[in-house]
Structures are given as structure tokens and as C-alpha cells.
Write a structure and sequence with these properties.
Length: about 140
């Protein structure tokens, strides 16, 4: 099975989904550039199994958006999630896009599809959702 990369160098990807205070590691405005889909899916599955809270805050790009699949999650209003198509090699991966969509809550999935956020490989400022928008879509705000 090929590794599905979403964006950038996996060395920049955070796999610390069990951490509830990202500021401890990255300062007040954390940046998670994403990485490969399986790593994020495994980290979210581990968080779900342990019952850990996943806090989505700061910039969360690419595969980082899989954190929306955490059973216990909350979103800070300052969050900005960047969506784009999954890539395998240099082409859009329909299987990767399906994996991404399957992790998103229904209302977020509908918005991503409505706005065609997974139709292109490049990061596009029009393909973002803010924490406030996610909260408006029913995601729980962090206290």
C-alpha cells in the first residue's frame, strides 16, 4: 500500500493528538502542516481508545484535519483548518479523499463537499474553515 501524503514534510507533522494543550509545544499559535493519512488516523484511533481530548487550535492543515474524527474533540475559535485533496504520487487520490471525508463529522463533510475543498492539490485560502465556522457547524468549542 502506498503512503498517502497530504502536505509537506512529515517531519513537520504532529502525531501528538493525545496532547490537549498544543501551546505547550508550539506557543500560542501552533502550526500543524499535516503529513500522511495513516499516521493521523492511527493517532486519532489511539486518542479515541484512551478517551483523550483532542484540541484543535491554531493552523491545522491537510491530514491534520483528520483530528475532526476524534471522539472527544473541541475546537478553539482561533483555529484555521486548511483542506485540499489527498495525493498519491503527484495525482489526486480518490481513496485518500474518501478516507478524509469518512473521518469528518457529517456537517463538516457536507461543507467540504459543497465548497469542493478536496478537488485540488494546492492549498487554497478559499478552502479553509475557521474554528468559529466549525463551531457554527456544530463542533464543540473548547472551554
Amino acid at each position: 500500500m502506498a503512503c498517502l501524503l497530504i502536505f509537506g514534510d512529515p517531519a513537520f507533522a504532529s502525531s501528538h493528538n493525545e496532547v490537549t494543550d498544543w501551546a505547550e509545544f508550539f506557543g500560542p499559535h501552533p502550526l500543524d502542516r499535516g503529513g500522511d493519512i495513516p499516521s493521523y488516523m492511527n493517532a486519532v484511533a489511539a486518542a479515541n481508545k484512551s478517551g483523550s481530548l483532542v484540541v484543535i487550535e491554531g493552523t491545522c492543515a491537510s491530514a491534520c484535519t483528520i483530528k475532526l474524527g476524534a471522539k472527544y474533540r473541541c475546537v478553539r475559535p482561533n483555529a484555521i483548518l486548511w483542506f485540499h485533496a489527498a495525493v498519491e504520487g503527484s495525482i489526486i487520490s480518490t481513496m485518500g479523499n474518501s478516507l478524509l471525508l469518512d473521518t469528518y463529522p457529517p456537517r463538516v463533510r457536507e461543507e467540504v463537499l459543497r465548497r469542493h475543498m478536496l478537488d485540488e492539490l494546492a492549498l487554497n485560502p478559499e478552502h479553509t474553515l475557521t474554528g468559529d465556522e466549525l463551531i457554527g457547524l456544530g463542533e464543540r468549542a473548547c472551554r
